[in-house]
Amino acid sequence: MAGQGLERREVLEILSLAAAASGFSGFHRWRFICQHNDQAAVTAVRPASYTPQFFMATEYATLECLTGIIIPSDGSPGAREAGVAEFIDFMVAHEPAVQYEFRTGLTWLDAHARTLHGKPFRELAPEQQSDVLKPLAYHAQNRPAEQDGRSFFHLVRRYTVMGFYTSRIGLEELNYPGLKFYSASPECPHHDDPEHLHLKSNA
Amino acid sequence: MPKTVYDVIVIGTGAGGGMAIHTLCDAGLKVCAINAGRRLNPSKDFRNHRMPYDMKFRGFNDPKKRAQSYGYMDNEYTDGIWEHEITYTTAPGTEWMWPRCYAVGGKTNFWGRSSARFAEIDFRAASRDGYDVDWPVTYEEIAPYYSRVEKMIGVASTVQNRPSNPDGEYLPPMKFRCIDRILESGAKKAGVPYLPDRIAQLTQAHAGHPACHYCGNCTDGCDTGSFFSTPWFLLPSAEHSGNLEIRTNAIAKNILVDENGRANGVAYIDRQTKQEVEAYGRAVVVAASCVESARILLNSKSRQWPTGIANSSGQVGRNLCDHMYGGAAEGYLPQLAGQPGFPDNVSGSTIAWMPRWQNLANPHEEKFIRGYSVYPGGGCSEFPWYFDSIEGFGSDFKRQIKRRYPTPVSFTMQAPSLRRDTNYVDIDPEAKDAYGIPVARIHFRWDENTLLMWEHAKQACADVLKAAGGELTGASEAPEIPGYSLHETGTCRMGNDPKKFVTNRFGQTHDVPNLYVADASLFLNCTDKTTTISILAFSLRASEHLLDNLRAG
């Protein structure tokens, strides 16, 4: 089975990463901070056309907000257009092993946002949301007390990438060239440049 | 009602069994094939043309099923094809990962398609380096069988004139992609060969089969039959001849013998009724795959064969060899960053290979004996799995993922284990499968020689990548565990001495003249090459030998 299946095989390796990430220590330190999960916030959420299977309405709104920040709509479609939050809700609903991490992670994020800026995450201004996420996302900006938040951020990021780049929109964004009909074995077009040191940049 | 006696009972319909069935039926013999699983329906069971968003779980599979899935080939696209029942155990200290496909055609439905001939340097390896024994055949003797097989199945490659890789009769090669040309230039600088692989993928219409349309994802099964598998290439003519009966969902249990100890049939369990059924024949061909074939012979105990049929040498199940696989290097080619998507994934990435270059002129040039090969791959894939190496979020993250899309490359090493007394298969004294048949127990560990190849391959592949201007990001922490390659060999080795070998040099067992073995269990070791084309060549030879014997009475 020489070299075969490098493609779809990688998909499964991503999953094992996701499984490893879900093995983090948990959110016990944060569990009680956000008990005043206010009714006001719940009613403020505009009912979406999609009815989440696992997440509560406020959780789902925060999740959708997060996915849109991770892969934004910035001239080309992003996670919102690709329905990534729906994908995550569907996957998590079928996967009890990650439900706790998602639920407590979203709770942590709102509690953390309140501590820093006085509002739940999805109600913050875009710059404030960025301020909350950067220390979780960039190694150089990591802060010692935020290990749980970092794990959660990377879990959401992983599922967002999984959802976006397996959607039609995401594969079009990459210009995915596979699963098409080619009448001949596709060949490198750069005949005069074997080392490919003189290609025109396209991005 | 008089019982039906077929000319030949063939166990297995994969490469070995499929070739035996094809050869015998074409010659007019009545064949009954015993196959452990069901028939596949390409239009229903092969989901290779589906996009991730056509799948309910986008290819990530239902988490409930994911927990039972075994090996990366067992996934949402191949749901319902790989076995989930326990079929073997491992001895303490043995790790062995061994996905089983029992469907008609076996692993040929999903194989990697690399199809290099074994060489004289492989058959005479023991004479060259003093380890183990030579094969009982010469390359000259086997070459015509390889040629016939290549004509039947269609192999695309080029003439390469390398001592370890005899050239065959090839269709035009697959074309090099950008990643190949860049790595080829690096390999040249590093003094390592980088050439078109020998790949059983039809670059033009061949023998009644349509040319490949390069959709990729061949590992999920080919619904146009544009690469070799027995259900597309060998079984149809046999069925058309009216000489073949395939019994599906039939788990072979043991070989039946007459009062003289000669084979006269096979007992199997019907998986649906769980009843034991007997099929009778004038001869039996065992081609259930290396470990399964040994299990069947060892489970065939009788008054005449108290330690298992054809096992007077005590060698059935011994000498298990396997290919060590490992990600020897991975990284990316910055030259391609930001380039438009290119259809790199048109063959599951076996377009190019780095065929064995070690110990060719001098068998002791390296710290290890023998040699290994490498399969490079990469480029635009179905999923940007490298995303985890890019930090951050937002527009920059999205842009980086797209920029890197054409750039990833990786190198997979394929290295043979050495034959050792401590690597073998026996019958577990306690464990039985779901049908009450004692299961095979595997005893296997990698040897020092193979681990030295792994270290060598990591260095060599890193050198090639760097010389190509690539960035090395790492290598797998450890090679894959044994069994992973599905290239196991050696449990019924062939040789001239009946005291030391299970079969003669044709695959006919020394003890039982009407019992043949026709799969990779015949092989003395696994070499640096893949096994399928050699199974086909040796099975063709064994089948014609059997045919001559039956005709002679």
Describe the model:
The complex is a heterodimer of chains A (203) and B (553). With 203 residues, chain A is mostly helical. Helices cover 52% and strands 0% of the residues of chain A. Chain A is built from eight helices and no strands. The longest helix of chain A has 22 residues, at 96-117. Chain A is globular, with a radius of gyration of 20 Å. Chain A starts with 5 loop residues before the first helix and ends in a 29-residue tail after the last helix. Chain B is α/β, with parallel strands linked by helices and 553 residues long. Chain B has one domain (5-552): FAD/NAD(P)-binding domain (3-Layer(bba) Sandwich), CATH 3.50.50. Chain B is built from 13 helices and 16 strands. In chain B, helix 1 (15-26) packs parallel to helix 13, helix 6 (139-153) crosses helix 13 and helix 7 packs across helix 12 (448-467). At the A-B interface, helix 1, helix 6, helix 7 and helix 8 of A face helix 3, helix 7, strand 11, helix 11 and strand 12 of B.
> In the CATH hierarchy, what is the class of chain B?
Alpha Beta
The CA-CA distance between the termini of chain A, in Å, is: 36 Å
CATH architecture of chain B: 3-Layer(bba) Sandwich
Give the % helix of chain B: 10-25%
